[in-house]
Amino acid sequence: MRLNEVTYTDAQPVDGYGPGFFRIGGEVHYGTLLTGPQGTAPWGGYSDAAPLLDLADTIDVLFIGTGKELSHIPADLRRTLEDAGLGVEIMNSPAACRTYNVLLSEGRRIALALIPV
Known about the structure:
The protein is α/β, with parallel strands linked by helices. The chain contains 3 helices and 8 strands. The radius of gyration is 14 Å and the shape is globular.
């Protein structure tokens, strides 16, 4: 088997997570956050659509990690994001982190909004 080192271009992978935190690109971040080609920053949760909408021209898919368990996001938030041309995928935060890392390694145009586990 041949192993290739993954090189990330403009965004950092999720290295780990735990109760209340995520480790992204080797740095620990606490609370809800948004990460992608724009870097990693705190995010205000479902009521804070503005930073998500700002990504509409730079990404194709936004993954939203809903915490430990899969749950629905508010219908008006989903509609607002989709109307802006963003593909939205909802999953629990651990699954969202894994999926984000795989697609990031493929060079996809993606971002990740996370609620801690």
